[in-house]
Amino acid sequence: MTKSLLLGKSAGTRLVLVGLALVWVLFQLLNPNFLSPRNLSNLLLQIAVLGTLAIGMVVVLVLGEIDLSVGAIAGVSAGLLALLISQGLPWWVAIGAALAAGGLIGFIHGSIITAFGIPSFIVTLAGLLVWQGVQLQLVGDQGQIPIRDVVIRGIASTYVPTLLGWLIALLGVAAIFAARLVRRRRRERFGLAVPALSADLLGAGLAGVAVLAVCAVLNSYFGIPWVFVLVLTLLVGCSVVMETTAFGRHIYAIGGNREAARRAGIQVRRRTITVFVVISMIAALAGIIEASRQFSASNSLGGGTLQLNAIAAAVIGGTSLFGGRGRIYQALLGALVVGSVQNGLDLLGQPAAIKNIATGVILVTAVAVDAVGRRRRLARGAAE
Q: Could you list the residue ranges that cross the membrane (predicted)?
């Protein structure tokens, strides 16, 4: 039983959940305010940008690629958004332009990668420098463009009314049960092994209880932040695309074995460009959220260790750096782990250096677990 829990198909997710529980218990013992409704609400607001970027990072890692420029793309998009708002354009035009700019950047990255066969690591590292320069040009000598539009400012600073929050939570619980049953029926239709029905219902029930508990805690403060609803909507949308569409299956196939996918008739170049467009648009969305949090776009937005933390969150959540393996919901789990560690160290008054060291140690541990698991799977495959 113990061996099954540690080495089974969902062992990575279980380990992340156990690690997250240990982090929460440790910081609660060190600071009684850690699990207060106010701090948990702040934690969700703090991880909104990181979680958004991590969702996109899971998609590109599953493809077997990487994007080091997402922070700079977020900064460029936020700068463009603030600039257009300051010129008197309506908020929906500014948001559309910011997302379109992100998509165009992703198209450029993907086209260069596929046309010249340059590793995505190099192209996006160069893109990081280029787009940071563009960001500086957009924001200008002032170093900051304030945003006064109430709609933009309200994205990350308003909350769902209590009754509507409960309705959203109940819809979430219903969606969890429906997803479990649909996935089970699909596997049965193709003759694949399925777990016992009681195990499926128990798992969905535990997830549903967790959703209702989170809703109760947040409603005891100001309610569910609208930006968290936005992140969950993005998460559900990407999950549906990756797990139920031909596009998603092609991404997993390319990440698992690029040459085999090409021989099977999958258009590898087109899929690669599409993935870089998607992750860049998600990075642009993260920039809009951060600009809403700060009520401005600044030279420092998207800088620092943001993109590295996004990669860390995706890997810590269970996405493989070697491609072909990872689930979208794991981005949120990883973001919760990284965000909880940083939030807890903030409450303890620890400096940024300690937060970086702690995040780095957790990342190395997660990569080591992934590498060991991959080696065991390869050995098992060879033995079979």
A: 12-31, 43-63, 68-85, 91-108, 115-134, 163-182, 194-218, 224-242, 272-289, 301-321
